[in-house]
Amino acid sequence: MKTTPEHNERISKMTFASVYPHYVAKVEKNGRTIDELHQVIEWLTGFDKDKLDALINEKVTFQTFFQKANIHPNAHLIKGVICGYRIEELENPLTKQVRFLDKLVDELAKGRKMEKILREG
């Protein structure tokens, strides 16, 4: 499934702070911890807990969030389908990065081992 320009625009304007509570609820509901969630986010973006808290408080958009991020060199190893989209086929770089994060959170919530989530090549 291809994304539309409107879809990509909507994602870019969404705030990370509006989605973060959903990530927390999803992982906690499935027996994982906020610390594990932060570990996954830090692996992908380079943001430690303090930086993450600051970005949440600033209510940055996903566009700004990922502009400030230092994306892990192994992020390209994140593959599969999330929200009906095959990650490898996404053309918009920002939409792809947001879906990388969604996929990692999904894997964490589904009980995948941390070593597998944090793709080390």
TrEMBL record:
Entry superkingdom: Bacteria
Pfam families: DUF2200
Designated name of the protein: DUF2200 domain-containing protein
Species the sequence originates in: Aequorivita viscosa
